[in-house]
Amino acid sequence: MPAIEVIGLRKTYRRAFRPGHEALRGVDLSVPEGSAFGLIGPNGAGKTTFIKSILGIVQPTGGTVRVLGGSPEDPRIRARIGYLPERLHLPGSWMAPTFLATVAGLKGLKPDKDANLRLLERVGLADALGRRIGGYSKGMRQRLGLAAALLGNPALLILDEPTDGIDPLGRVEVRRILQEEVQQGTTLFLNSHLLAETERLCDRVAILGEGKVLREGRLEELSRASSRWAVRFAPGADAGALAGVGFTAGGAEGLYHVEAADVAGLNAALDKARATGALLVELKRDGQDLEAVLASAMGVAA
Ligand SMILES: Nc1ncnc2c1ncn2[C@@H]1O[C@H](COP(=O)(O)OP(=O)(O)OP(=O)(O)O)[C@@H](O)[C@H]1O
């Protein structure tokens, strides 16, 4: 059973005296249980609308949504979802432990002060327990939001820009927490503008553009390189002889490209290159990163 299953999802926002705006135009998406799934796409693609639809916050205009095998409007299903919204509204005059205890109560969890403190420590807020939330930095507010999302060990974590405002070292910490969650079997659904973040955390990715899924799949499949390899030879390599055995000069000093369908083909090509007197210095697959995958899905040059 997928953790999230969406079929033909549509959402049109109504506008006064004008035609409605179609934010989602028939989205089909299946998020496997236990996966770390990244949603990416340009501004206005419909990502937040999609997230709000699968949480039952936004009422879809059409299509079906099943989350953890049920309806997102079912309180029993909602209790198993941890959600970190894009814009967090936090009570400024409260302290973090009071806030967590209140959220835990709203989620129907048994009061557990120690567990809440452990959670605040886990997200790196141990030193800020006696401070009012209103004085927290943006990153601290995000960490508190993450702690609230983690309350009660949810089966599904839905995070909208979780590392927004968090400094680079803090991001490493947040990533570590999210990786631990996935290792423990939690399904992660992540919306982030930071493609490197998605690349590091997620095993599957969907690209949303103008309210439609443009591409979806395992990260390594989407970014899988062609059969092209980048090869660097030591200075003095004979470009003409290398061209004769299938190596095209790649612009930079000593850099060449070669096509090889498999490892045997690659080694055969390298043997031919060595036979010309070329000495291998470096070899790597010519891969596409997520930015290039996104750019090609959107039809723009990376
Ligand atoms: N409440 C609303 N009323 C009217 N239009 C809306 C509303 N919320 C979003 N939209 C419009 O729907 C489209 C999709 O917005 P959405 O916030 O889902 O995109 P997004 O991919 O999350 O964008 P971003 O990356 O900028 O956060 C946009 O054109 C937006 O202006």
Automatic annotation (TrEMBL):
InterPro entries: AAA+_ATPase, ABC_transporter-like_ATP-bd, ABC_transporter-like_CS, ABC_Transporter_VariousFunc, P-loop_NTPase. PROSITE patterns: ABC_TRANSPORTER_1, ABC_TRANSPORTER_2. Gene3D superfamilies: P-loop containing nucleotide triphosphate hydrolases (3.40.50.300). The keyword Ubl conjugation does not apply. Pfam families: ABC_tran. It comes from the Bacteria. One of its GO terms (molecular function) is ATP binding. CDD domains: ABC_DR_subfamily_A. The keyword Lyase does not apply. SUPFAM superfamilies: P-loop containing nucleoside triphosphate hydrolases (SSF52540). Keywords: ATP-binding, Nucleotide-binding, Transport. Residues 4-235 form the ABC transporter domain. This is ABC transporter ATP-binding protein.
